[in-house]
Design goal:
With 195 residues, the protein is mainly alpha-helical. It is built from ten helices and three strands; from the N terminus they run αααββαβαααααα. The chain has helices spanning 6-19, 25-42, 46-60, 73-82, 90-103, 106-111, 113-123, 130-154, 161-183, 187-190; strands at residues 62-64, 69-72, 88-89. It has a three-stranded antiparallel β-sheet. A hairpin with a 4-residue loop joins β1 and β2. α1 packs antiparallel against α2 (25-42) and α3 (46-60) packs antiparallel against α5 (90-103).
Amino acid sequence: MFAEDPTTSNSILTPVSSACTKKVKKYREAAFSCLEQVINAFGNPEFFNIICPSLLEMCNTATPTKSGKSLFRTDAKAESDEGEDNSVPHYKILSCITSCIRVAHVNNILEQKENLIHVLLVSLSPGFPWIVKVSAFSSIKELCSRLHEIVDESLEISPDVGATSLIYELFHSVSPKVIECISTVKIAQYYEVPE
C-alpha cells in the first residue's frame, strides 16, 4: 500500500505538511489539498502519528467564520493587522484528518480518541457552515468504518475494550450533535458548495 521505502514518503510529507503552516492563503489551501493527496497516495499508517496531532491542534485552535474557513489564533492578529483573509477552509483540514484515519493503525486512532471526538464536536457546532459539517460526517463515517473492522476482527477472540469505549463515546457524545445538525437542514444549506 505505501512505498517500499518509508523515507521516500516521509521526504514528501515533511515539506508538504510544513507548507500547511505558511502565511499566504492560496499557498496554505493548496498545501492542505496536496497533503490529503499525499496521505491517500502513500497510505502509510505512520502518517497518522506524524501529521494528525498537528491537524487536530489546528482544528482545536480554530474559530468558525461564515465562509467555512477556520480562523486560527495566529491568523486573527494577521487578518486584523493586514485586513486580508489568511484563513484556511476548515473542511480541508477535516479532509486531511479523514485521510489520516483511513490509513492509520486502529491503536493509534484510539490513542487520539479524546482529541478526535473534541474536533468532531467542535466541527458540528452551529458556527460552522454545512461544508464543514459534511466533512465532519465523512470523518465520522471513516472512523466508524475503522472501528467496525477492529470489532469484527476481535469478535472471534474477545472484544477490543478501546474500540468499544470509543464507539460508546461516539454514540453518546457525537450522535446527538449529528442529529441536531440534521434536524436543522434547510434546502439552501444542502446546495451549499465550497468556494
